[in-house]
Specification:
The protein contains 11 helices and 19 strands. The chain has 386 residues and is an alpha/beta fold. The strands form 5 sheets. Strands 3, 4, 5, 6, 11, 17, 18 and 19 form an 8-stranded mixed β-sheet that branches. Strand 5, helix 4 and strand 6 form a beta-alpha-beta unit. Helix 2 packs parallel to helix 4, helix 5 packs antiparallel against helix 8 and helix 10 packs antiparallel against helix 11. It is globular and about 50 Å long.
Length: 386
Amino acid sequence: MLSCGSLTCTHWSEVNMKAREKTLVLADLHLGTTNTHDIDTLVPWIKVLLTQSLPTRLVLAGDIFETILPMEHGQPINNVGVTTVVRAIVATWQELFSSWNESSVQEVTFLSGEHDAEIATKDVRDVLRRSLPSKRVTTEERWYDEGSDSLIVHGHQFDYNRIFWSGSERVSCVDGLTVAINALLSQSPGIETRVRDAAEAGIFSYWYAFGELPRFINAVERIFFAKASTYEAECARMLLGGDLDRWLGMQSDLLTRACGQVVKLAAHHPPTLLRLYDAFYRLLDLHVKWRMKKVLAGHSYQDEPETLKISGGVRNLVFGHFHEPRMWHDRGRSGYGISCPRLSVAGIENECLRTFRDLSYVLLDGPDVSLHHKRILRLTPLEQFK
């Protein structure tokens, strides 16, 4: 049995399966309404992929829409509803949706991520179907490809960013941590203007390299004269305000609970949070990989109120979420991680801001699974930000 979020499958025959079809898998586009500078890179790249591979199915594996981070939008998104936000994003990225509409793709499947968790609602699905009238559009939490024996999920299901639901209440820490990033980038009108201008010029990004949050925050301090203490204080407020307790109360995983308690203690002295980040991130990342291997092999890991298990396991797991291209093999089973194609910050190197794009995707072609990746690096002298 596989249980992800509120959806449960007891047999793979209950999941929408299509054997030996060619499927293009993308993840983590984080489409917003102000990141129009990304259109010139992402749209031509995706058009080439569609033309070269001629897939019959497109699976968008989570965090396709950015519905949390206010900086990705020109107008406030708090309290306007996910459907309204998605409708505005589709209008901004009309050229991208047109490329999907005009392609060989027959079916488009949107999977939920932690940044667009409510994508599977009927109202959002209706918006997507109207934007892709010539395609069959579905919204799911996971998808299974029978031809390659592959399970496709966003990936947050295995991570500390995992979202739980208590009735209609969303239980998560990711919203608060994202708001903390936004607080850092917009702590004054002047700083926010400079950050937005640099992002629009394509020399800065709200996103950071895998596991590189401290380096990202250092770059924001150096370039825009923002104060890291703003981020630390907002994180501490969230961690001590009840969100962390509610989230930990939904879990039975001992390591995650122990780490959560240590983080809560650290929140009483906010500067400690960034100092602990690297050690905790690497430890939890190893734990995530262990969880993935267990599920691939058909075992379960308990994480109340859900148990993730696939009877008999699967041969391949395809996921996004971690903003890092990765591939690993273990006893005949494989994991394929798709990175974020958005411009990402990797820190400061030799008085230059180091940024990059990871243009990666997975192609399922009958029984074959392949990860394709190209990294575009850029060094921007800090003096360009003055």
